[in-house]
Amino acid sequence: MRVLTGIQPSGDLHIGNYFGSIKPMIESQEEHEVFAFIANYHAMTSLDDGGRLSHLTMQAATDFLALGMNPAKSTFWVQSDVKEVLELYWVLSSFTPMGLLERAHSYKDKVAKGIASNHNLFSYPVLMAADIVLFGSQIIPVGKDQIQHVEIARDIALKFNNRYGDILTLPEFRVDENVATVPGTDGQKMSKSYGNTITIFGEEKAQLKTIKKIVTELVGMEEPKEYANCNVYNIVKLFLDENERVALQERYTRGGEGHGHFKLYLADVLWEYFRPFRERRAYYESHPDEVRDILKSGADKARAVAQPIIEKVRSVTGITY
Ligand code: ADP
Ligand code: TRP
Predict the structure, then answer these.
(1) How far is the CA of 9 from the centre of ligand 1 (A)?
(2) Ligand with an atom nearest the CA of residue 130
(3) From atom 2 of ligand 2, which residue's Cα is the shortest distance away?
(4) pLDDT digit string (tens) for 207-248?
(5) Which of these, 216, 218, 220, lies nearest to 233 by C-alpha position?
(6) Fewest 10 Å CB contacts: which of 80, 230, 247, 252?
(7) Nearest CA to ligand 2 atom 7
């Protein structure tokens, strides 16, 4: 099964991103053919600072390699290194009714929020469709906000196939219902836009400072505490196995410890959990050329898969003459 993921290069990753999407993707490399790319063209819809975009692209590559993206098993590249995607984007535009894009929630939401709407924001789903069908992708794991984009990709591919024959693979989205929403320091969904995140690769002191801000109930030190609704517990449990969870639950119900103790425990667990990833990240950060080489080989692998598909498209549409 070919599974494709596009990653927006958008800065510091947080543990909500990790448990909600990165960890499942890394684990799926064991059983699926994973295609993952850094969507730097997509990022241009919200970024017009070239220095920042190239920095964020390298940061995303470094982070994902550190977290277990395995370039030997999977295909990992930067979107702009396989230019055929822009060609297919144009071809697919001929099979994209304006109304289909006008109905896109993500576009409407952004415009409603007052974000300047350039043509690239409007046509974003067509580029996403090209990303998907260029590699014959079958499954697209997404968060709920991206379901409609995959449906649009399917609609566009179907229209193309109706005109020119069974050439493009029709993708399906997959939403993992088992993945819980990770709470932020204020108990709401952890999200960059709410400023309540705990990052994966922050400095130790800064991490502790953030963890100390987690909102907890006011209960005296000696009293028993509720763990089920405790923000600290609900974050730290993600890192624990069953025995460790039970042991922590007992510490809550026994009393005699304050939330400050549980926060220190979380800081410790988090720091140890990400230690090997942090070490790998430090290595890649000091070897950017190695990262670029990995990305270039990934692009070569991706292009080899794209080539027969784009050639068929060129041929049936009459671009080859
Ligand atoms: P943010 O909300 O911080 O901007 P993104 O929208 O960039 O995060 O999310 C990237 C990926 O991480 C998505 O697949 C999303 O489902 C997942 N994700 C983000 N926040 C959480 C969270 N709090 N819990 C679980 N998954 C999350
Ligand atoms: N739109 C996706 C997001 O914002 C990123 C993305 C771009 C993508 N192209 C894709 C995701 C293709 C899956 C498949 O998160």
Answers:
(1) 13
(2) 2
(3) 6
(4) 999 999 999 999 999 999 999 999 999 999 999 999 999 999
(5) 216
(6) 247
(7) 6
